[in-house]
Amino acid sequence: MSKEVVKVILWEENQKDFIRKFYDLQFIPRIGEEVYLKKEKWRVTRVEHDLEVSEINIYIEVIKKMKQEKSSNS
After folding, report:
1. Three-class SS string for the chain?
2. Which residues lie across from 37 on neighbouring strands?
3. Tell me, what's the pLDDT at 56?
4. What is the pLDDT of residue 72?
5. Measuring CA to CA, which residue among 36, 41, 9, 3 is closest to residue 22?
6. Which of 3, 19, 44, 54 could pair with 10 as two cysteines, CB 3.0-4.6 Å apart?
7. What distance in Å separates the CA atoms of residue 3 and residue 53, rounded to the nearest whole number?
8. Beta-bridge partners for 60
9. For residues 1 and 11, what is the distance between their CA atoms, to the nearest angstrom?
């Protein structure tokens, strides 16, 4: 049995910026899962499989930390 190498490419959702490329990942993250990459937390928004070229495109968005700022009403 031959094992094919699958290319996994991570893209930033809004800008469609290339973030990282992996080969033969053991686990593919699912939509809604969080991944830690480039010292930030990201959430998977979309996964596209291209069987013709053995490629998986994973679109992710950075999870922004909610900062509660107190507004002063004077």
Report:
1. CCCCCCEEEEEECCCCCEEEEEECCCCCCCCCCEEEECCEEEEEEEEEEEHHHCEEEEEEEECCCCCCCCCCCC
2. 40
3. 92
4. 47
5. 9
6. 19
7. 14
8. 12, 44
9. 32
Q: How many residues does the chain have?
A: 74
pLDDT block averages, 10 residues each, the chain of length 74: 75 80 87 90 93 90 67 49
pLDDT recorded at residue 69: 45
Q: pTM for the whole thing?
A: 0.72
Closest CA to 60 of 40, 22, 49: 40
Long-range contacts of 39-48 (CB under 8 A, 24+ apart): 45/13, 46/13
